[in-house]
Design a protein that fits this description.
31% of the residues lie in helices and 16% in strands. The chain has helices spanning 2-5, 12-15, 20-35, 39-52, 101-104, 170-185; strands at residues 57-58, 63-64, 69-70, 77-78, 83-84, 89-90, 95-97, 116-117, 122-123, 128-130, 134-135, 140-141, 146-147, 156-157. It has a five-stranded parallel β-sheet with strand order 1-4-7-10-13. The protein has a five-stranded parallel β-sheet with strand order 3-6-9-12-14, with no helix packed on it. A four-stranded parallel β-sheet has the order 2-5-8-11, with no helix packed on it. α3 (20-35) runs antiparallel to α4 (39-52).
C-alpha cells in the first residue's frame, strides 16, 4: 500500500520505515484496549506512538478502516469519535477534530463530536474538518480547506488560492510593518 501511494518509497523494506506504519499498527492495538475499557493503557500507547512518529495523534477511540494511509504524518490529529473509511489518504497537518468543549458539552452523552470520512477520500495538507460532519465517498478535501458542513460523495472542497501582489503600496508596506511590530511584541513568534 505505501509503495503504491508514496512515490518516494520504492521498496517494501523502505516502506517499513514509513512513519504511518507504527502509528496505524499501534492505533489498532490501542483501539482494541480502548474498546475493552482499558482507557489508560490505550492512551499510553497512543502517546508513545505520537512521540515515535513525529506527531501522528490518533485517539484510541477513533475507528479506522482498512488501508488508511497517512502521508508524511507530521501533526495529524484524529479525534475520539472520528470514523475513517477504507482506502483514505490523509496528508500532513490534517485535523479531524471537534468544534470545542463549549459546543460539545451541550451534546448528548455519547454523541458523535468528530467527522465521519467515507471510503477513498483524499484529505490534503493542512485541511481541517471539524464537528460531526460526514465526508462522502471519493470526496477530495483540498489543501488548506476548512470544512464545517457535510460534503457529498464525489465532491471537491478547495480553499481559495493565494493572491499574488507584485508590489506593495507605501500604505500597504506601513500596514505590514505595523502588523509585524504588533506580532513581535505579542509573544507569538
Amino acid at each position: 500500500m505505501i509503495v503504491s501511494r508514496d512515490p518516494s518509497i520504492r521498496t517494501r523494506a523502505e516502506a517499513l520505515l514509513h512513519p504511518a506504519l507504527p502509528a496505524l499498527w499501534t492505533h489498532r492495538v490501542a483501539h482494541v484496549l480502548y474498546s475493552r475499557g482499558h482507557r489508560h493503557a490505550s492512551r499510553i500507547l497512543a502517546y508513545l506512538a505520537r512521540a515515535a512518529t513525529g506527531g501522528i495523534e490518533i485517539h484510541p477511540g477513533a475507528r479506522l478502516g482498512r488501508r488508511v494511509f497517512i502521508d508524511h504524518g507530521a501533526a495529524v490529529v484524529i479525534g475520539e469519535t472520528a470514523e475513517i473509511g477504507d482506502d483514505v489518504t490523509i496528508f500532513h497537518q490534517v485535523t479531524l477534530g471537534a468544534v470545542g468543549w463549549w459546543r460539545d458539552d451541550r451534546r448528548e452523552p455519547g454523541a458523535r463530536r468528530h467527522p465521519v470520512v467515507g471510503n477513498r477520500v483524499v484529505i490534503g495538507t493542512n485541511a481541517i474538518v471539524l464537528g460531526p460532519v460526514t465526508i462522502g465517498d471519493e470526496a477530495l478535501i483540498g489543501a488548506g480547506s476548512l470544512v464545517l458542513a457535510d460534503v457529498p460523495a464525489g465532491a471537491r472542497v478547495m480553499a481559495p488560492a493565494a493572491e499574488i501582489a507584485t508590489r506593495l503600496s507605501a500604505a500597504d508596506r506601513e500596514q505590514s510593518a505595523q502588523l509585524l511590530r504588533a506580532l513581535a511584541t505579542s509573544g507569538c513568534w
